[in-house]
Every structure is written in C-alpha cells, then in structure tokens.
Amino acid sequence: MPQRYAYGYVRVSTHDQEEVSPESQKKLLWEYAKKNDIIILKTFYELGISGRKADKRPEFQKMISMCKADEHPVDLILVWKYSRFARNQEESIVYKSLLKKQHNVDVISISEPLIEGPFGSLIERIIEWMDEYYSIRLSGEVLRGMKEKAQQEGYQMVPPLGYQAAGGGRPFVINEKEYEIVAFMAEQFDKYDVDFTAIARKLNNMGYLTRRGCPFEARTVERVLTNPFYYGLVVWDDISFMGTHEVRITKEGYDKRMLKISQKHHPVKRRNISTCKHWLSGLLKCGYCGATLAYNGANIKSPYFQCYRYSKGMHPGSCSISEKKLIDSIHEYFKKLSDGMNFEYTYHPPQSTEKKEKQNSLTKEFEKLKTREQRIRLAFEKGIDTLEEYGENKARLKRAREELEATISDLRSNTSAIIPSKEDVLLRVKTVYDVIRNPDIDYPTKGTLIRSLVEDIVYDKENGKLIFHLYIS
C-alpha cells in the first residue's frame, strides 16, 4: 500500500462530559496512524467549541481549505469519533461528499471502524444521526437547566463588560478596571453626544481592548450602552427580573439615553461624522449616478467635492463643486427656509428598543436563510439531493423568506407616533442655520446638527442646483 498522509482533527466542546481530552485524542490519532502506516502532517485543535455549526469553527475551515489545495497534501482526515468532525448530519454529509468526490480525501473515525460497501455507509449515517440526536438532547438539557436557574433569579449568563461572576448564581460584582471603560462610553455619549464610532476610536487610541483582546467597534459600544443590565434589569431569553447587583445608572437615566438613541435616524450607508474628512462628507450625492461626492482637500486654496465614481472612470460627466460654492449655497438655502420659503420633509418615527431588537433578530434570520440556501444548492451540485428534493427545499426557503419580509413590512408600518409639524421642523432649521454659519463652531458639531435634519443633498450639476431632502425624527 502506498504511503498515506493525513491531517488530525481534535475538538472538545465546553459542556460534553464524555469526551476524551485533547492530549488523549491526539495520542490516539498518532497511535492509529503509526499502526496503519499513515503520516500525520498537522493536527488542528478546536477547544471549547460546539460541533453543531461548521462555519463557527475556524480551525475546521482552515483544515478543509488546505485539503482542497491542488497539490493534494493529504489522503485522510483522522478523528477520534465522527462527532468530532460534525454533529450536524447535514453538514457532515456535505463536507464528506465534497472532500471525497472532488479531492479524494476520506474522513476516518479511529474508534468507529466501518466495513466496506453500502452497509458500512449506512452504519456511518446511523452514527452521525445518533451524534446529532445526542447533541440536540444535551443542548436541550443545558437550556432547561439555565431556564430553571433564571426563573429562580439566578445569575447564569456571561457577565457584561464591567462586571464579573461571583459564582453559585450570586449577583455579579463590579470589576472597577473594566467599569472605567463603561463609564467612559456613557459620559461620551450622554454628556458630549459623541457617536458610537468616535467612542470606539477613542477607546482604541487609549489602548483599551475588548475581553477577547480585539479593538472596540461601534456595535460593541452600542451593545454596552443599550444593555438594561447596567440599571439593574437581568434578561435571559424571555425571562427578566430586577437584580440585586450594584448599579451606577438609574432607570430614568437609561430611558433618557434610549430615547436619545431612538431619535437619531441614521440613513442606510451614511457614515458617522467622526469618520469624515469634512462636515458635509457623506451627505452629497451625484446627480448623474447617485454615488457619494468625496471631499478633496489636497488643493488648500481651492478644495472641492467630486463623485468618487467619476474619479474612478465609471461615468463620463464630472460632478465636482468647490467647497466655498457648496457652503455658500447651503447657507443661502437655509436662510430662505428661515425666511418662510415652502419646503417638504419626511418623518422617521423613533424606534423602541424592543422594535430595534426585533429588527436585529429578523436580520439574523435572513442571514440564516442565506446559509441554508447555499447548503441546499451545494447538496444539489454534489449530487446529494435530487432535482426534485432541491426544488422542494428551495420552495420551502422561499416561503420562509416571504414570511420574514411580510413581518418586517408590518414592523416598519406599525407606528402610532405623532408626526411633527412644519413649525417643529422650522425650529430645527433655524437651530441648524445658526450653527453651520458660525465659524467658531467645530466640524463634528456642524456635521451632527445638519445630519439631524438633512438626509442627503443631490448635486444636479447639469441644471446648476442642489436638491435637499429634509427629514425629522
């Protein structure tokens, strides 16, 4: 028999009580390889990670990628049990089929030898089904225990930033060093109205890192500032209770912050002012193609804005406007509004925390649908599913997508808020006008104020005019 090469794969999840340790798994793999004249080129380790989802196992994905290399580095993947490779039968079949049919790589369980032929394949499927059944059942037991603990008002989730576990389900206690980060976020947003992106950048510049050792992001800051745990509410799944842990923000202060967040309408793809070179960056749109006009300040004497698509040669007509001409035109427009010129505006109702969480949940469901669609297409392309099975699965996912879209549509239309009058908008206009024409006010303040009223400004160069889209929230 010719020399065979293999990768070893070792995985240990956090809650399995029947697993062999990583060191023992590796030892068994090497003993098997030596006995069967196999050379293990590399062993991949996945520690504390469930086998239910392959896309959440980076080492597994790295191993699969290396197996697919053109030079055919290995003939085998060795695992202690098939459950180490995957506990989701659907993913197990897809990955094994892909490796075998396209790259001639077999997956071997050293503790579950199979006989050759169809009967051996049947036994392998039964083992995979039992592994998945065990995983689902174990998951259910763990969740049931967590639910009982939450119902008894026990603390059993991961402590949020600034807190640490006390053990035994007792209330979390404040970690003073970590809480400095939380306090800084709160002060920057509540007191100085700094946006999430700018807060994250400041934290990173100060050398702070998340618990996982990563830089802070805007979404990390938002999660902290919107977490009700900081005023005392403990939430786990659909269970909530007022905890007894120490807090440093009142319910009133939290509600005020949430109202402030809900009133900040943020159009899709608009950048935060803290990421912009100019206080008007991101607001200007090209009248030819709709793309953003980028600020070019290289020429100090005559800085200007230009369509970034034109700059890349994507359309023939230039759409540039000088900074001075643009600002003068904006000042003129706001003066006319203040003097009584008629105008139209759009109202964007505030989003409650519950509504926002619901939308986030629906967005995650959409991502899951995309993954499922990719899987059924892959299963069909690899010959695992017939055309009929593929059609049925595709129709089922299409129905699920339509239901999600209908739910999102209902969520967007379901509002009972009172729409502000033109008088309310005019008050905002005058405030913005006073700020943007004041040379002593900084860029971030100007940018923040004009974004609270202007959704975008389209530069129609052909007709020599600016088209303002106003809104209030």
Question: What does the secondary structure layout of this molecule look like, with pairings?
Answer:
Layout: E1 4-12, H1 22-35, E2 38-47, H2 58-67, E3 76-79, H3 82-85, H4 89-103, E4 106-109, H5 118-151, E5 163-164, E6 173-174, H6 176-190, H7 196-205, H8 218-225, E7 233-236, E8 239-242, H9 251-262, E9 284-286, E10 293-296, E11 304-307, H10 308-311, E12 321-322, H11 323-338, E13 345-347, H12 353-381, H13 387-413, H14 422-436, H15 443-451, E14 454-460, E15 465-472
Parallel strand pairs: 1-2, 1-3, 3-4, 9-14, 13-15
Antiparallel strand pairs: 5-6, 7-8, 10-11, 11-12, 14-15
Overall description:
- The chain has 473 residues and is an alpha/beta fold.
- 47% of the residues lie in helices and 15% in strands.
- It has helices at residues 22-35, 58-67, 82-85, 89-103, 118-151, 176-190, 196-205, 218-225, 251-262, 308-311, 323-338, 353-381, 387-413, 422-436, 443-451, and strands spanning 4-12, 38-47, 76-79, 106-109, 163-164, 173-174, 233-236, 239-242, 284-286, 293-296, 304-307, 321-322, 345-347, 454-460, 465-472.
- The strands form 5 sheets. Strands 2-1-3-4 form a 4-stranded parallel beta sheet, with helices on both faces. A 4-stranded mixed beta sheet has the order 9-14-15-13, with no helix packed on it. Strands 10-11-12 form a 3-stranded antiparallel beta sheet.
- Helix 11 runs antiparallel to helix 14 and helix 14 (422-436) packs antiparallel against helix 15.
- The protein is globular.
- Mean pLDDT is 80; it is low at 133-138.
